[in-house]
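haha ok so turns out i had the wrong file open the whole time. this is the CORRECT one, sorry everyone. sequence first:
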Amino acid sequence: MTRRSLFALVALSLCPAVLPAQAGGVGRILDEGVFVVSRAGTAPQTESFKVVQMDNGLIRATGQILGADSRLSSVLLCDSLGTPSTYDFITKTNGVTTLEVRARPHGRRMAVTSSDNHSNESMKEVPLNPGTTVILDNGLVHQLYFLTLGKRTGSVDVIEPRTARQAAYSLVGKGLEPVQIGRRSITATHYALTGGPSPRDFWIDDAGRLLKVEIPGAGIVALRDEIPR
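then structure:
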């Protein structure tokens, strides 16, 4: 069994626990793959993901990170501009759920609730501005896919769901650059997300698929394990 097949099976086993009920339907796969994520001072991890265009027009992104004794999984549902509709996140350690986070729209605000295995619960609402608000979980890289939907540049309001905080960023296109994946080079558009507490650089191919991510403040470099097909 290939590594990609293995991660696909894991995704099927993890995602139902956090999948929003309204996300039904099979849809069309927009992107799917695995990132090798390197963090300063730690062993590399793999992040598998899938982005699907649903029959109702919404876009669903699922992601999973597996550690030696931990599993992290997420489901993000957005409209065609990347505005979040729902978000579900769960972390398990040795089979025990240690953190659950849910985000749901409440008018022009997003209600973010979290609970852990120590009976700690919290709820906070943050502004939700269609067309400019996105969700980016600091523990995942694949969600940057949504940043360039609709050829967006300029002001972006980023919700970090696990801290229930929102910050203003600016998205800037930096032009075409080569990205080396394995023994091959592919031309991609370099974007910089700047101005907020966690700046990021990322590279998108001509089909809108995320190839590479750098988060300098966290010492993170994430690269696709192979060129998208």
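The CA atoms of residues 31 and 51 lie 5 Å apart.
again sry for the mixup
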